Structure formats: structure tokens, C-alpha cells
Amino acid sequence: MKAVVIEKPGVAMVVNREKPVIKQGEVLLKIKYVGFCGSDLTTYLGKNPMVNYPRIPGHEISAVIHECADGVPENYTVGKAVTVIPYSNCGQCPSCKAGREYACQFNQTLGVQRDGAMCEYVSVPWQKLLMAEGLSDVELALIEPLTVGFHAVERGRVTDGDTVLVFGCGMIGVGAIVRSVLRGAKVIAVDIDDEKLKIAKELGVQHTINSLSEDLSLRLKDIEPGGPSVIVEAAGNPKTYLSAVQEIAFTGRVVCIGYAKEEVSFATKLFVQKEMDILGSRNATANDFRAVISYLGRGVFPVDKMVTEIVEPEKASQVLNGWSKNPGKVFKILLEFN
């Protein structure tokens, strides 16, 4: 079968691999689309500490069931369209024992710690499949990245009484924006790209701030003088991490999704004075996946505006190289195996 492999930093190519042979309880999927995640880009750039090379990337999956092994429930039938929860869990670590398997200490995400789905076929345990009747093949590939933002809002305990600021309006930040809006919160979107801020406005954001051309603190004093009660950091930038701690309201919650590329030093005085909650947010629960599927089923999400480009596997290297040079202009790039 055809597969995209990142052989080493800066080198991605299409190779031939053996089609997987499914075992008891597994399903063989025929891949339709796979989204490029920021983790795939950092793997390509050699900046992902969780990856060994060579690696098949990809965990944002749209597929159809091609074959089922023994032990798979009868409702998982050939031809059914599915997406995949791409995380593994050991069942024994503190996270798993606490019922938070998505944050398993020994998690292996497809395309990161183990080979992923940028290939024609992939085998997965049937328990990791989710069916989404009525969604298009493209929408199926958008579910997983949106769930990460949905989960961050869950971690932040957002309600209709909150003012939520989201740093970063890529796909992860968009997920946080959408779920905050769905919960009735007042939402402020911050980014350095006006086009992304325009789409955030269309998604229901009340206020947008371009932090490159506007003074963030001054704007926030006008919008929410006491500061936002929840801030979601989805940019992965040391500056936005610092801003989150500085701008959060007293007793507010800061939810961190983005991986900053370097260490961040904080004035710990603010931690104590504000009695703030600082929360990590990792991956997503099955319920987050179901919530995204339900939302996309409404048909209100601007799919065409969110998909920057759809390319064939042979262009994977070209796309990764171009994205690395101009990351701010990309929402979602999909690889098509149809």
C-alpha cells in the first residue's frame, strides 16, 4: 500500500508498505482523508521529542470500514464511514485508574509515538471507532482537531456566566471558540492574522483582537475591565503564556493546550495573588468526540473556509515545507487517499 513516511527531519516521501493484517477485535480501515496536525509539522522539522524516525504521521482520520476480524460487533459493517480516537491507554497508570484514559501516562498517539494513518489502510481496535451518520468524508477528518479545543473548554469549566479569551485561532483554538459559544459564554478571540479573526467572528465571537497591531491589555480593559474569567492558550507561544497569566481575572482559570517551543518564566506572585487555576489540557474524551460530531451534524460549521488545501500523498513533502515557512496562513490541510 501507499504510505507517507517522514524518514528524518526535513525528509518526507511516499513509500510502499505491506497492508496491515487484522487481529482479533480489529478493523481494517480504508483511509479517505487525513489532516495534517501541528505535531506532524514539528515531526517534519525535527522538533517533536516524542517521535522516533522513520514515522508515518497522521491521526485526524476519515475512513471507511474495509474488513472486520472476529470479535467485532455486528453493527461495524463494511463500507461504514468512521473516524478514529487515535490515543492508546494502558489501563493501569494513575490517569487510567482515575477514568481519564485520554491522558494515559503511556499514551501512544497514532502518527506520534507509533505509525499513523497517512497510508491507504490502517488497522485499529473496534473500540476506537466512532460512526458519524450524515457527515461528509471531509468533516470526519476535522473531528479530532476540533475535539482538542472542545476538551479545553470542558477543562476550564466554562459556563454562560464566563468571559473566555482564546489565544490562537487555528483549528484547535476554533474548537475552543465553538464550544465556548455553544455554552453561552462571552468570547474574545486573539490572533495575529485578520483572516482568522474574521472567521472567529463568524463563529460567534463577540470581540476580536489582533495582538500584532493592537494593545492587548488596553483592549481588554475596554471589553472586560476585570479580565477574562477563562483563558485558553492554544497558540503555543511563550508570549501568550505570559499574557494569559497577566490578563486572567482574579480567581480565573487558565487552560493550556499549546506546546511552547521554549521554557516560560512566570512571576509566581500572580499565581498566589490571583488564586488562579492553571490547567493542562491533553487530547480529548469520547464524549468530546461525540459533542463535535453532534455540532458538525447541524451543518453550520464553515468547512470550506477551514480547509486550506486538499492534496494527494505525493505532495506531502511540498506541503510540509511550505507550511513550515508560512504557518500563520494555514487552517487545515488534508491528504486525500480517495
Main β sheet profile? 7 strands, mixed
Question: Number of folding domains?
Answer: 2
Low-confidence spans: pLDDT under 50, at least 5 residues?
A: none
The name of the CATH architecture of the largest domain is Alpha-Beta Complex
Could you say what the CATH topology of the largest domain is called? Quinone Oxidoreductase, Chain A, domain 1
The beta-strand count equals 15
Structure classification: alpha/beta
Radius of gyration: 20 Å
Annotation field: number of helices? 11
Mean pLDDT, all residues = 95
Principal-axes shape call: globular
How would you characterize the overall build of this protein?
InterPro entries: ADH-like_C (IPR013149), ADH-like_N (IPR013154), GroES-like_sf (IPR011032), NAD(P)-bd_dom_sf (IPR036291), Zn_alcohol_dh (IPR050129). Residues 24-130 form the Alcohol dehydrogenase-like N-terminal domain. This is Zinc-binding alcohol dehydrogenase family protein. Pfam families: ADH_N (PF08240), ADH_zinc_N (PF00107). The protein is α/β, with parallel strands linked by helices and 338 residues long. The protein has 2 domains: 2-145 and 284-336, Quinone Oxidoreductase, Chain A, domain 1; 157-280, Rossmann fold (3-Layer(aba) Sandwich). The chain is 30% helix and 24% strand. It contains 11 helices and 15 strands. The strands form 3 sheets. Strands 3, 4, 5, 6, 7, 14 and 15 form a 7-stranded mixed sheet that branches. A 6-stranded parallel sheet has the order 10-9-8-11-12-13, with helices on both faces.
